[in-house]
Amino acid sequence: MPLPEPILDDLRFQKDLVDEARRRIIRYCPDWTDYNLSDPGITLIELFAWMTELIVYRLNQVPDKNYIRFLDFLGVRLQPAASARVELTFRTSVPLPIAPGDETSVLVPAGTEVATRQTEDEPEIIFTTDARLLIAPPRLTQLRREAADSAAGDDFNKNFLPRLGVEPFYAFGRPRPQPGDTFYLGFDDQVDLSGYILQLVFTCEETQAAGIRREDPPWVWEVSRGNGVWEELPLSTRLGERDTTGGLNNAQGSLVLYLPLDLQPDDVHGRRGYWLRCRVEQRRPEQGMYRESPRITSVQAFALGATTRATHAVAVRHETLGISNGEAGQSFKLRHAPVLALRDDERVEVEEMIDGELVFVPWQTVADFSESGRHDRHVTLDTATGEVHFGPCLRQPDGSMRQYGRVPEAGRVIRMSQYRYGGGVAGNLPPDKLQVLKSPIPYIDRVTNMVRASGGRDQETLDEARMRARRELRAQQRAVTAEDYEHLALAASRQVGRVKCNTGAPADGRPLPPGVVELLVIPAALDAVQAGDLSRLQLDPALRRTIEAFLDERRLLTTTLRLREPTYLGVKVRAEIVVNAHSRPEAVQQRVAEALRRFITPLTIRWPPNGADGASPAADGDGQPTTPARAPLQGWPFGRHLYVSDIYSLVQQTPGVKHVRDIKLGSRLLTPSAEDARAPADDVTLDDRRVIETPPDGVLCSLEHDVVVVAL
Predict the structure, then answer these.
(1) I need a surface site. Which of 99, 259, 323, 661 has the fewest CB within 10 A?
(2) Half-sphere exposure of residue 410, counting CA atoms within 13 Å on the CB side?
(3) Is residue 617 predicted with pLDDT exceeding 60?
(4) HSE value, Cβ hemisphere, 13 Å, CA-based, for 526
(5) In angstroms, what CA-CA distances link 477 with 468, 470, 499, 551, 554?
(6) Where does the pLDDT of residue 360 fall: very low under 50, low under 70, confident under 90, or very high at 90 and above?
(7) What distance in Å separates the CA atoms of residue 567 and residue 669, rounded to the nearest whole number?
(8) What is the pLDDT averaged over residues 37-59?
(9) Any long-range contacts for 379-383 (C-beta under 8 Å, 24+ apart)?
(10) Which residues lie in Low complexity bias regions (predicted)?
(11) Is domain 140-310 classified as CATH 1.25.40?
């Protein structure tokens, strides 16, 4: 139970001030007999009572101020804003290579700025690339074939690429292709194809597409991710990039593939390179089946661009903070704040004389000066305010003075090598919003974000810091109990949305071995989830490493840490409703669908019941509030079942709904890394089930809901 907050003065305006003063009138002023509100004396009493109440209010803020000051003494600092991250796709103005044998490459430097279009109402939002991107012509070196049936003759060891132009290459088995027949395209591993937009141009002997449908051939394209792992790649359907090969039956055609960012070279049957393969696989009867193998006479590979990661941040380099006066405890302030978490190459630098030459020497950024000696080059940085502090000189209990950290010499320039500012939920942009290249790059025609940016969170509020301080004081930076692991994992990064320490059976159904601690982590991707992009619930490898490194310093040596995603269960609801006579059916439909999305969600909803600033809830076209009832403020609880009665109650309480005629539920398992995380819920079977059971390690997500307006 928390300690009760003391009320230093409990006087109230009417009861204790105005009424008490009126009762004393007869004693001190017996000739005053008019106590009506219109009397000027009563007006003066109310005025002084109001002024007194203001003083009482300010007095009662003292405990709150002291509480914050105590947190400051404990070293609690506001956590900086988290930056949204996105994959930016740069497209070249001409396919590479420009001409046969041409080695022209395109370089996109690290820190390249890409922004949204600025309008009168919306300021520009800038993202910067995280690493250098080199787009070089791909080098196709191998063309091989593998039959599904080894008895048919497996000639993978033969490279058919040098023979093209002399004899045609039969892509699949002869005389009649079989399911599983595959041909491979191998690329030189000296050219990193990670994130490439790869165009394959085929020249074939034209046939009548015997047995197949040209627009939908029975094949699957896959790419090797390394270590023998193959991933299916969908062919691009964007304008100008559609498959025109007709299943390799047209005389000339091309197709475009978007390669993954984490692509790795692999050994396929002892031959190393970047590998693509096309495999015969009939998934729908209407696709048909090859009655004869396509015959390829030429194949060429071109790079149309590439994708790289970017962060919502603006980089500032070599900003001068000031000049040292030679005293202890100096402080300087950066021009921009709040500051994002510093990288290894982002440090405070101080001018020092080294071998007779003035050079800038980097100083180490520490959390505090408690372990700093007088010769240690240590500074602290408050990321919330952008203040840089040098070590103080403090008197010790024995009367001596101790210097914590080194003091810069007088007259020396102090600068910041680099820092980044930005972040926040403003960076969670929808697709195709980042299109403005701040500085031109040769051979780059345009840039865009093909996927939604996610992961941006605002700087920690004071109330959040108070709650975090309570958790940290309870855990004492040591992970022992299940709650300790959950609280510390949340403190590891602002990109962590929710954490649950799994004490039940894991996803494979087997009990956890002794000493194993399993954490279920949901990333902070609220904007993407609300927009229907459930792929952002995937646990990013970088975030996984951050949490593991943070907890490794605090866990017991006898425990083994395991991180994974929870089991996501997508839910679709079909609701038949009757609307009120004076409500617009379209507005009510939208209101119900929004209520369902906010109710069935794995992440914390952002809005409070009365708005973040105390305003009334948002209203729709009918003037009705859109705030749904009974929405789970912390996201759907782990392992909680969904009952149809919950949906009936939620929909019935939505403004504008007169009756709920029928509710049908459907569900399916979701894998955030799979393509079905972005797909509609057309394949979900709806029925009259009364409950959707959730596994102990599972949470529910909303798929596309159907809200139908019917008449009685």
Answers:
(1) 99
(2) 3
(3) no
(4) 22
(5) 12, 12, 17, 9, 6
(6) very high
(7) 8
(8) 78
(9) 379/348, 379/405, 381/339, 381/342, 381/348, 382/77, 383/77, 383/78, 383/79, 383/80, 383/337, 383/338, 383/339, 383/340, 383/341
(10) 609-625
(11) no
Taking each helix axis as running N to C, give the angle between helix 644-652 and helix 585-599, from 0 to 180 degrees, rounded to the nearest 10.
140
Q: Is 288 left (phi over 0), alpha (psi -120 to 50) or beta?
A: left
CB contact at 8 A, 592 and 575: yes
Backbone angles phi, psi at 511, to 5 degrees: -65, 150
DSSP alpha helix (H) spans, 374-440: none
**d(Cα 59, Cα 598) in Å, to the nearest integer?**
40
Q: Give residue-wise pLDDT tens across range 14-25.
A: 767 787 777 788
Q: What is the pLDDT of residue 304?
A: 96
596 touches 573 (CB < 8 A): yes
Q: Decide if pLDDT at 222 tops 90.
A: yes
CA-CA distance, 305 to 96, in Å (whole number)? 9
Residue spans per domain, the chain: 13-60, 140-310, 323-414, 462-564, 568-709
> What is the Cα–Cα distance from 80 to 422, expressed in whole angstroms?
10
Residue 380 structure tokens? 């602290």
* DSSP annotation of 493: -
Task: Please compute the mean of the pLDDT values over residues 167-184 and round it to a whole number.
Answer: 88
User: Is the overall model pTM greater than 0.85, yes or no?
Assistant: no
Reduced to 3 states, what is the DSSP secondary structure of residue 21?
Answer: helix
DSSP state of 228: T
Q: What is the mean pLDDT of residues 54-83?
A: 74
Tens of pLDDT, residue by residue over 492-506, are 888 888 999 987 666
Q: Mean per-residue pLDDT for 145-167?
A: 78
Other beta carbons within 10 angstroms of residue 486's beta carbon come to 20
Distance CA 75, CA 382 (A): 11
Instruction: Please state, for a pLDDT cut of 70, what percent of the chain lies above it.
Output: 90
443 and 303 in contact (C-beta within 8 Å)? no
Separation CA 424–CA 462 (nearest Å): 16
